[in-house]
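Per your request, structure below.
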């Protein structure tokens, strides 16, 4: 048996990690991105656990408003520099990179100038005078992001993932250390504001160290034209994404005290951390891969189906863990004040899983130079979010924000599937086969462990956490076994 396992692992390693083909680049890149992101997210999780004990919930609620307000102008002027460089055939050319840097840097300066001017209006709207200086400090990060070396995006295009990991994860870890250090001395929301700016400043500095680039005072007309053509396809997407992603914060921030908003925000962030990690790893690996095979629709469809299958097979057991253990998880990680957000966390986990599956299709649209195909999906999600958010919050309380998000993202996902079929002739029959098995297994395991939890007299955070973990392990062993069997067949 051990020899068989060793042989299987050897075959899988040779098939997926060896060679210079697309599959080898994808899996080696995913390994680098995964390692770097895991280190960064571990730092972030540890940081948040510590900060929730050093700072009051109001601090996180105020910063949620700062982030959301900044996103309005940021997304209004989104030009998609990273995606443009990755998908363009001549994206590595210095003239194209130089033009992209000046557009990104100019955009950053312009956004900050607008936010600096409107900060007092935002503070007045929420009745909090401290918001204005907080925004002006934290949002210096927009300038730093715009000034980041465009060669870092070229490294991503060329699948030199090690460099990209050092830039992104290195900056994130440095920023987390700054926030924690400040929180010990400045026990207020200012620690979060200064730390946010410091994180992106470090990314900017590291990007020029790892990916040297010297901007020249020149703009190539053809490169600018190509960049603006791509940005027209992106235009409007960011605004609609903002409406979908931040409407709950704006509405809840108006209807509930900052403390309750802070508790809700930190609970949602708990699931957004691993989701962002997975999305970033997949996006930074798959987008360059899809860009290389833009016209090979059958290969794109195979990758989409396999990756979607992996996400669902591993994501459904994780969802069981969150739902069964949400109260205990929040209490242990953040403290007893946060367990009241258990239901929003559970619904947010389902939203995250659907969004993650949907993002694979979005990556195909961007990699093939058709970001406008994603617009209809985001438009529907944004409209539904606007229509549903207020009645959902009034009817269900704070969890209503995530109920509205779930309905919206499911509708948008359906639209994306139809568009994908027209683009690559994706077979709905083959695609749909990835869902029934893990969903049925997970629902059966969830029902079983819910019954056990009601029958057993024991109660408490550790018991509920153990129950959720056991349910996750059982479902994961069944679903993971099926996934490993599939990999074996392919190898």
């Amino acid at each position: 048996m051990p020899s068989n396992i060793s042989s299987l692992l050897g075959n899988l390693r040779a098939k997926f990690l060896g060679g210079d083909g697309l599959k080898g680049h994808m899996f080696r890149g995913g390994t680098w991105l995964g390692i770097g992101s895991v280190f960064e997210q571990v730092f972030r999780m540890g940081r948040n656990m510590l900060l929730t004990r050093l700072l009051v919930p109001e601090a996180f609620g105020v910063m949620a408003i700062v982030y959301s307000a900044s996103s309005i102008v940021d997304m209004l002027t989104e030009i998609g520099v990273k995606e443009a460089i990755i998908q363009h055939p001549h994206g590595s050319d210095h003239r194209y990179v130089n033009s992209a840097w000046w557009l990104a840097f100019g955009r950053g300066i312009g956004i900050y100038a607008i936010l600096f001017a409107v900060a007092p209006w935002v503070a007045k709207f929420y009745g909090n005078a401290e918001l204005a200086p907080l925004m002006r400090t934290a949002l210096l990060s927009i300038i730093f992001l715009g000034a980041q070396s465009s060669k870092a995006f070229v490294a991503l295009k060329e699948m030199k993932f090690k460099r990209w990991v050092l830039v992104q994860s290195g900056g994130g870890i440095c920023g987390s250390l700054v926030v924690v250090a400040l929180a010990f001395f400045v026990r207020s929301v200012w620690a979060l504001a200064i730390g946010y700016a410091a994180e992106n400043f470090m990314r900017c500095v590291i990007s020029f160290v790892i990916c040297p680039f010297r901007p020249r005072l020149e703009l190539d007309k053809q490169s600018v034209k190509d960049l603006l053509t791509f940005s027209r396809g992106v235009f409007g997407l960011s605004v609609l994404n903002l409406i979908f992603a931040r409407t709950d914060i704006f509405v809840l921030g108006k209807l509930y005290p900052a403390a309750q908003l802070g508790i809700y925000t930190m609970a949602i962030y708990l699931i957004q951390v691993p989701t962002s990690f997975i999305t970033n790893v997949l996006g930074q690996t798959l987008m360059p891969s899809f860009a290389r095979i833009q016209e090979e629709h059958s290969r794109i469809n195979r990758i989409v189906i396999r990756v979607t299958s992996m996400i669902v097979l591993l994501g459904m057991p994780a969802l069981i863990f969150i739902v069964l253990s949400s109260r205990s998880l929040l209490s242990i990680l953040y403290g007893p004040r946060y367990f009241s957000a258990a239901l929003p966390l559970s619904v947010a986990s389902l939203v995250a899983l659907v969004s993650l599956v949907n993002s694979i299709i979005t990556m195909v649209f961007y990699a093939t130079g058709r970001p406008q195909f994603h617009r209809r999906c985001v438009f529907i999600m944004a409209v539904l979010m606007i229509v549903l958010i207020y009645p959902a919050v009034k009817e269900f309380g704070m969890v209503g924000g995530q109920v509205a998000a779930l309905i919206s993202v499911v509708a948008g996902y359906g639209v994306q599937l139809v568009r994908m079929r027209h683009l690559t002739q994706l077979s709905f029959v083959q695609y749909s086969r990835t869902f029934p098995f893990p969903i049925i297994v997970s629902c059966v395991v969830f029902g079983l462990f819910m019954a056990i939890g009601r029958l057993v007299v024991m109660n408490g955070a550790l018991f509920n956490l153990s129950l959720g973990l056991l349910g996750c392990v059982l479902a994961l062993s069944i679903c993971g076994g099926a996934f490993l069997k599939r990999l074996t067949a392919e190898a």
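The mean pLDDT is 79.

Regards,
D.
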